[in-house]
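Team,

Forwarding the record for the chain on the shared tracking sheet. I've put the sequence and predicted structure together so nobody has to dig through attachments.
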Amino acid sequence: MLESRIGTQNAIPTNQVAMKTFKHKPNETQLLEELRPRNAQRADIIPTEGFTMVVDGKLKGNFSDEQAAKAAGEELLEKFPMLRVEVYNAETKVRTKVDAIS
């Protein structure tokens, strides 16, 4: 078959191998990053509404109600009792310490 195409413009020289070019195939992590929502809140900006879990002085999670924030803090304290966990109320600007469930 190669011999019949030697005279044409699209002929492949006999000393070269034809290589098929592949388009870039994204890997798994790139696909997961595309699916991840882009509305992440910055940790250095104090929220103005809702409740935030504060772990060792750092803002970690936003919640719509206080009970959900306390439950998340209690769950974290069960696994890591050495942490200082508080719930920050954005409307009143008050932090409340979360105690581990005994």
